[in-house]
Amino acid sequence: MRILLVEDDAMIGDAVRTSLRQDGYAVEWVRDGRAAEAALSAEHFDLVLLDLGLPDKDGIAVLQSLRQRKQTIPVIVITARDGVGERIKGLDAGADDYVVKPFDMDELGARIRSALRRSSGHAEPEIEVMGVRLNPATREVTRDGRPVMLSAREYAVVEALMLRPGAILSRAQLEERMYAWGEEVESNTVEVHIHGARRKLGSDFIQNVRGVGYFVPKPGAKT
Ligand code: CA
């Protein structure tokens, strides 16, 4: 999962980025409204954490132009402006949720997981495909009821595929979900982690379409 963090306060930005990376998210951090717009038009993100008081372009303006472009990516507003009026303005401009500074990282984490679940169309917190169950909130994975230990990268690949069963994700799309910008991508890394995940979850769980990418079968689909 890739998160765009838009925050001009160095201390808050650093703390949020560190905490989210520990939770296994790929996090990109930009510090003003224009950089946020540039990143959003050039790259894929699964969620935006958006401060409202920003240099160059206000967070509300960033949000409005994002929604005018019909981008439905979930946005959580992070703001020190705790007045009711500001919150309403943010929600009216298309925010999915908001947190008021100072906020608790555990609470932010829970709001992020909830927004990601809603946006991927899963009201239920757990996803199940072919006897494999994944809980995005706790990051627990079981196979036929037995717990399976995945590495952080294996988990990132499996989660990305399970959120959209039947959809083929290319190697580049999977790499995007596993690494942040500037992080060194080892060669053959996707293959290595898919191999690891298959060993733990079953050889036919992740399927390959040669030259195109990988998918997990839709529940009930014949493969
Ligand atoms: Ca600010």
Question: Which keywords apply here?
Answer:
223 residues; alpha/beta; Rossmann fold; Arc Repressor Mutant, subunit A; five-stranded parallel beta sheet; 8 helices; 40% helix; elongated; binds calcium ion
In short:
The protein is built from eight helices and eleven strands. It has 223 residues and is α/β, with parallel strands linked by helices. The strands form three sheets. Strands 2-1-3-4-5 form a five-stranded parallel beta sheet, with helices on both faces. A four-stranded antiparallel beta sheet has the order 6-7-8-9, with no helix packed on it.
Bound molecules: calcium ion
Mean pLDDT across all amino acids: 88
Major sheet: arrangement of strands: 2-1-3-4-5
Broad CATH class of the largest domain: Alpha Beta
Strand % is 15-25%
Helix fraction, binned, reads 25-40%
Reported by name, the CATH topology of the largest domain is Rossmann fold
- Total count of helical runs of at least 4 residues: 8
Shape: elongated
CATH superfamily of the largest domain: Response regulator
Task: Describe what this molecule looks like in 3D.
The chain has 223 residues and is an alpha/beta fold. It has two domains: 2-120, Rossmann fold, CATH 3.40.50.2300; 127-215, Winged helix-like DNA-binding domain superfamily/Winged helix DNA-binding domain (Arc Repressor Mutant, subunit A, Orthogonal Bundle), CATH 1.10.10.10. It is built from eight helices and eleven strands. The protein has helices at residues 10-22, 33-42, 59-68, 84-92, 105-119, 152-162, 171-178, 189-201; strands at residues 2-6, 26-30, 47-51, 75-79, 97-100, 127-129, 132-135, 140-143, 146-148, 207-209, 213-215. The strands form three sheets. The chain has a five-stranded parallel β-sheet, sandwiched between helices. Helix 3 (59-68) links the parallel strand 3 and strand 4 (75-79). Helix 2 (33-42) runs parallel beside helix 3 and helix 6 packs across helix 7 (171-178). The mean pLDDT is 88. Bound molecules: calcium ion. Calcium ion binds next to loops.
